[in-house]
Write a structure and sequence with these properties.
Blueprint lengths: L3 E6 L3 H13 L6 E7 L3 E3 L4 H5 L9 E3 H4 L5 E5 L2 E5 L4 E4 L2 E4 L2 E4 L3 E3 L7 H4 L1 E2 L3 H18 L5 H7 L1 E5 L3 H20 L8 E5 L11 H13 L3 E3 L4 E4 L3 E4 L4 E3 L2 E4 L3 E3 L16 E2 L12 E3 L4 E2 L1 E3 L2 E2 L4 H20 L13 E4 L5 E5 L2 E4 L1 H17 L3 H13 L22 H20 L1 H7 L29 H4 L4 H9 L12 H10 L3 H24 L3 H17 L10 H7 L11 H17 L15 E2 L9
Parallel strand pairs: 1-2, 1-9, 2-5, 9-21, 11-18, 12-13, 12-18, 13-14, 20-22
Antiparallel strand pairs: 3-4, 6-7, 7-8, 8-28, 10-19, 15-16, 16-17, 23-24, 25-26, 26-27
Helix pairs in contact: 1-9, 5-6, 12-13, 12-17, 17-18, 18-19
Bound molecules: flavin-adenine dinucleotide.
């Protein structure tokens, strides 16, 4: 039984960072247990919600399964909705159980703030969770579909008008995605792109107010150029099911208002009896300790810590991660001794993507716009995966953002992406496989013997007479025409080298740096002879693997790698140069079509996944592993 129970609520950016830090520190310390509770079984990449909402990526692209993130750590995961925290009894209550704690971290994030505007709760869409994004995407798709059949012009126009309230990150990133999605929506529903109208409605006189004016103006000009109508100094005073009313008295007919105007603390925490600051955020000191409570910490968007008088830490990812680390370090200092480290926010700037191909960024004074801003945002997102230590999700991100995109919604436009039929690469696969099998067989039987046996159909039977004298398997002389091996070897190898026939090589001689590498790899004739024997099996292996479509990606990569090596050794002739691009082309998953990879790869993925992450387990079984007291009669848990 652990002596110290640390319970973390919320597996957002802040909670995940705190849990990772604590899990690393107490990896082998049985006296400390760590429980992470979230209402979802996954961590949501909130910064990309707009990409799901506007169908740039599929919904699962921003869900990172917590079991994968915390596999092989001591963090116990619970998927449940926290309903109450009792500070006196030091106990967290969820819908299905209760969890005693010695140290508690609250990282439950924020939620949209409608500032009491009538109709927002009933008619507006928000973008603050995975569910919000999926709901919005479905609504937009269905509304456009229905609108395409509406004959009344006014109703159709209202249905095809999409309004975004608020011009912060969320609002501008959302409308930027809609700009790019519009063409596809129109095409799929036999509409004209110009039938769809996009609005940004902002109460302040300027947009993107977290950026400098120059950067914000660039973003504004881009949006205006793309046809977005931007209404500034236009607070919305009421939202109806088919229109919105502005303070000026104006009315905009629309069936879709996306409310991104404000953020407040997660209202679930209202009755936790904790002191709160602006927008309900929970007050903490510089160690993220909740005001007036012992052993309770608040992190991320939920925390309120004034970095300067009247200026709380920003509600951004960097602040969330850093507050999470501060709280974890404070708990470590409490349990293991040592000095607590006060929070000192280090922020590197602001990046706003406006669709997949344009963005603006202010990176601590370095101002970027256009393609480069989005490129940097991708780099920052990739760096994030080091923070959560997940190569798997980094790989998935690269796939979703660069290789599996549609409609050129990609910083590299459509160039790296193509949804093609790999069946068409079957003939090429057979051809490249044939190339390696012939190369391997020629070395196995010996070039001369093979040449003669394959010169006519009637000579093929000679292959059954056994291996030729010039077989690479039998040879005890160096076949490779490398100077440093020839000089130290007997006349036999010179004869062998002279005897070999090569087409005009692509390179006339080996480059100095590559010769240096080769001299390390093949220092003596003995090593070279061993390698040339091994090459017979390697070449046959590559050929057979490609032919059978088994581990085709790896075999094709090896094929390309060896061809590059042979080119650099000045051994590969112009007659074989085609095999290099052909091998690269086969890395397109060609083994999945009429090949063994169709069965083998999914089998290996499943077996390796079960071994590394453990077998899939129902969420309700999470309770078996934690020090929880389930409520009687509890059955289902939201995932
Ligand atoms: C569309 C959008 C775009 C954004 N873009 C950027 C950007 O480009 N750059 C940037 O720096 N920031 C951006 N942000 C802000 C950033 O996402 C937040 O600052 C960050 O998510 C805060 O992290 P957090 O851990 O505090 O909370 P969250 O990430 O919100 O996580 C809170 C967690 O708590 C869980 N939870 C909540 N209530 C309960 C409960 N009762 N029981 C159990 N679990 C609960 C939730 O399921 C969630 O997993 C964006 C936000 C949005 C919405």
């Amino acid at each position: 039984m652990a002596e110290k129970n640390i319970v973390i609520i919320g597996a957002g950016y802040a909670g995940v960072h705190a849990a990772k830090k604590l899990a690393k520190k107490y990896k082998r310390d049985e006296s400390v247990s760590i429980t992470l509770i979230d209402r979802h079984s996954y961590h949501t990449m909130m910064t990309e919600l707009h990409e799901v909402a506007a169908h740039r990526v599929e919904p699962d692209a921003i869900q990172f399964d917590l079991r994968r993130l915390f596999n092989r750590t001591k963090v116990k995961l619970v998927t449940d909705n926290v309903t109450h925290v009792d500070h006196d009894k030091q106990c967290v209550t969820t819908e299905h159980g209760s969890f005693p704690y010695d140290y508690l971290i609250l990282g439950m994030g924020g939620e949209p703030n409608d500032f009491g505007t009538p109709g927002v709760g009933e008619h507006a869409f928000t973008l603050w969770s995975w569910e919000d994004a999926v709901k919005l995407r479905e609504h937009i798709e269905k509304t456009v579909q229905r609108a395409a059949r509406v004959h009344d012009d006014e109703t159709r126009r209202a249905m095809l008008t999409f309004t975004v309230c608020g011009s912060g990150f969320t609002g501008i990133e959302m409308v930027g995605e809609l700009v790019e999605w519009k063409a596809r929506l129109a095409k799929n529903n036999k509409l004209d792109e110009s039938d769809i109208t996009l609005y940004v409605i902002e109460a302040a006189p300027t947009i993107l107010n977290m950026l400098g004016r120059k950067d914000a103006d660039k973003a504004e000009s881009y949006l205006v150029k793309k046809g977005v109508k931007i209404l500034k100094s236009s607070p919305i005073v009421e939202v109806k099911s088919d229109s919105i009313i502005l303070k000026s008295g104006g009315e905009i007919p629309t069936h879709t208002l996306i409310w991104t105007a404000g953020v407040q603390a997660n209202s679930d925490t209202k009755d936790y009896g904790m002191s709160s600051g602006r927008a309900g955020r929970l007050k903490v000191n510089e160690f993220m300790e909740a005001e007036g409570l012992e052993n309770v910490y608040v992190i991320g968007d939920l925390a309120y810590f004034e970095e300067e008088p009247g200026k709380p830490q920003p509600q951004i990812v960097e602040a969330a991660e850093q507050t999470g680390m501060t709280a974890a370090k404070s708990i470590i200092a409490e349990i293991s001794g040592g000095e607590k480290e006060p929070f000192k926010g280090k922020y590197h700037g602001v990046m706003v993507s406006i669709g997949a191909r344009y963005g603006v960024a202010d990176l601590s004074g370095i101002h970027l716009s256009g393609w480069f801003a989005n490129f940097v945002k991708h780099m920052v997102n990739l760096y994030y995966f080091f923070g959560i230590r997940s190569g798997y999700y980094m790989f998935q991100y690269v796939m979703h953002e660069f290789f599996h995109t549609k409609d050129k919604r990609n910083i590299f436009r459509g160039f790296p992406t193509r949804y093609g039929n790999v069946l068409w690469s079957l003939p090429l696969r057979i051809f490249v496989a044939g190339f390696w099998i012939v190369e391997g067989c020629a070395k196995l039987w010996g070039e001369e013997t093979w040449k003669e046996a394959t010169s006519s159909f009637s000579n093929v039977k000679n292959l059954f007479n056994g291996l030729g004298e010039d077989s690479w398997l039998l040879a005890n002389s160096v076949k490779m025409p490398f100077e440093w091996l020839q000089a130290t070897t007997s006349g036999a190898s010179e004869v062998a080298a002279e005897g070999a026939e090569y087409a005009t090589p692509i390179l006339s001689s080996m480059w100095g740096w590559f010769q240096w590498i080769m001299e390390i790899m093949l220092p003596t004739p003995e090593v070279a002879i061993f390698m040339q024997k091994a090459m017979v099996f390697i070449e046959l292996g590559i050929g057979l693997a490609i032919l059978g479509g088994l581990f085709t990606w790896l075999a094709s990569l090896a094929s390309a790698g060896f061809l590059v090596m042979f080119t650099l050794t000045a051994m590969l002739g112009w007659d074989k140069v085609w095999a290099l691009p052909a091998s690269i082309a086969l890395m397109n998953g060609s083994g999945r079509s009429i090949g063994l990879d169709y069965w083998v790869v999914p089998f290996l993925q499943k077996t390796a996944g079960d071994w590394w992450y453990g077998k899939e387990r129902a969420i309700y079984k999470d309770f078996d592993q934690v020090a929880a007291k389930p409520h009687s009669g509890s059955k289902d848990m939201s995932a």
